[in-house]
Design brief:
15 helices; 408 residues; 46% helix; 11 strands; binds protoporphyrin IX containing FE; Cytochrome P450; alpha+beta; six-stranded mixed beta sheet; Cytochrome p450
Length: 408
């Protein structure tokens, strides 16, 4: 154990087999044992603080003077090997993600404005079109694997369209985006190709503006540089893809397996909205997030936090904090006070949560409209969660349905 972490001798490991099972149960156990701020060990037994309390997360995210985002503050860099598996999440890049203060406001504000300029009705049309095209690729088969063939493709397709990429370039870009976020070999090369394609896109828009996100960023009064735009477009692509893809996948799983939702699955519109909301409370896609770094010595829920300590934000745990929902069997309904989009300056920026909801709603409605008798083709307990402490999502969601007649 690195020196300076006396409270971590009995810390819970936040990696390994326990995070593939029922993580909500794990969080309940950690909360019972340690309270709302717990000592945990990340991969390789690297110590960190796990913030599980709803109020404590609110306090941390809204207090950016004390809990800041620039990872270069970390007091454990000397202990982190160059092949540490979590480096992609904490390795510093000159992007909006790690910017702070005025610099962050300038860049996040420009991103928010560029995204907010999207016509919502046009976005719905784009989402429906993409979802329909994807359904068509498997509708005649009578079976599909909805995570790889559908849920994870949709957000990347939508973002590529709102970035203004020509339709012919999008399938390759989507393949690269998915590969770049994978842990498999080839991820770095795929990431480089995505970077290069976005670099070229911004260069094209410098010559000639269009009605798209890169053009709006170039024209924004914040005066972003070329490199800032490229890297922040990359961040948006990555930030949208996995969470929204898993939101779609987790919601479909819930609709296929939970009677409360499955009874209305065929006519699915109102139940899709409810299921999407329920998932944000119970199986939220970004279940934990790295994080914030303490700028100075302080106390949090009785814990002594040192300057440079890493705090992992436990959004899923906060959503099931008994202090917030005492004895409530279901936390969803119309209640949208969940923590699933983070909070404060570095929370998922307006209007991204609204755009994600449009994308996810359309994905579910189009699927149910086109394949009204779609159902799981395996038993519920055969569905496997990916062993990621950050993302809550399934490996596969195999389904069956009446095949559509062949198109002539
Ligand atoms: C169109 C889809 C989305 C876009 C464009 C998007 C974009 C972003 C961006 C740019 C950030 C970094 C903000 C910053 O550091 O200032 C971010 C953070 C975040 N996003 Fe999203 N996002 C999307 C969907 C989602 C979804 C579906 C979820 C989960 C349900 C989600 C959860 C989060 C969380 C938890 C953070 C970190 C919040 C924090 O640190 O407090 N996002 N998102």
């Amino acid at each position: 154990m690195p020196p300076g972490y006396p409270e971590h001798t009995n810390a819970t490991r936040l990696y390994g087999p326990q995070i593939t099972g029922d993580t909500n149960e794990l969080y309940t156990r950690i909360r019972q044992e340690h309270g709302p701020v717990a000592p945990v060990l990340l991969d390789g037994d690297i110590p960190a603080w796990f913030v599980l309390g709803y109020r404590e997360i609110q306090h941390v995210t809204s207090n950016s003077q004390l809990f800041a985002r620039d990872c270069r503050r970390w007091n454990l860099w000397d202990h982190i090997p160059s092949d540490w598996p979590l480096l992609p999440y904490v390795g510093w890049t000159p992007s909006v993600m790690f910017a702070e203060g005025e610099e962050h406001r300038r860049r996040a504000g420009a991103l928010g404005d560029a995204l907010d300029a999207l016509d919502r009705a046009e976005l719905v049309t784009i989402c429906n079109e993409i979802a329909e095209e994807l359904v068509e690729t498997f509708a005649e088969d009578g079976t599909a694997e909805l995570i790889s063939q559908y849920a994870h493709q949709i957000p990347a397709y939508v973002v590529a369209r709102i970035f203004g990429l020509p339709k012919s370039d999008i399938p390759q870009l989507v393949r690269d985006v998915l590969d770049s976020l994978d842990t498999a070999e080839g991820a770095a090369a795929a990431h480089q190709r995505v970077h290069d394609r976005l670099h070229q896109l911004v260069a094209d828009r410098q010559q000639r503006r269009r009605r798209d996100v890169p053009s709006r960023l170039l024209d924004h009064p914040a005066g972003l540089t070329f490199d800032e735009i490229v890297i922040d477009l990359l961040v948006v692509m990555a930030a949208a893809q996995a969470p929204t893809g898993n939101w779609i996948g987790n919601t479909l799983r819930l609709m296929f397996t939970d009677d409360t939702f499955s009874t209305t699955v065929q006519g699915g519109r109102s139940s899709a909205t409810e299921a999407l909301n329920e998932v944000l409370w119970k199986q939220t896609p970004t279940q934990n997030f790295i994080g914030r770094w303490a700028t100075q010595r302080c106390e949090l829920a009785g814990r002594r936090i040192q300057a440079g300590d890493l705090l992992v934000l436990g959004f899923a745990a906060a959503n099931t904090d008994p202090q917030v929902q005492p004895g409530q069997p279901t936390g969803s309904g119309e209640n949208r006070a969940q923590m699933s989009f983070g909070g404060g300056e570095h929370g998922c920026p307006f209007p991204a949560p609204e755009l994600a909801r449009i994308i996810a709603t359309s994905a579910i409605e189009v699927l149910l409209d086109h394949l009204p008798d779609v159902e799981l083709s395996v038993a519920e307990d055969e569905l496997e969660w990916r062993p990621s402490v950050w993302m809550r999502g399934l490996f596969e969601l195999p389904v069956q349905f009446t095949p559509a007649p062949p198109t002539t």
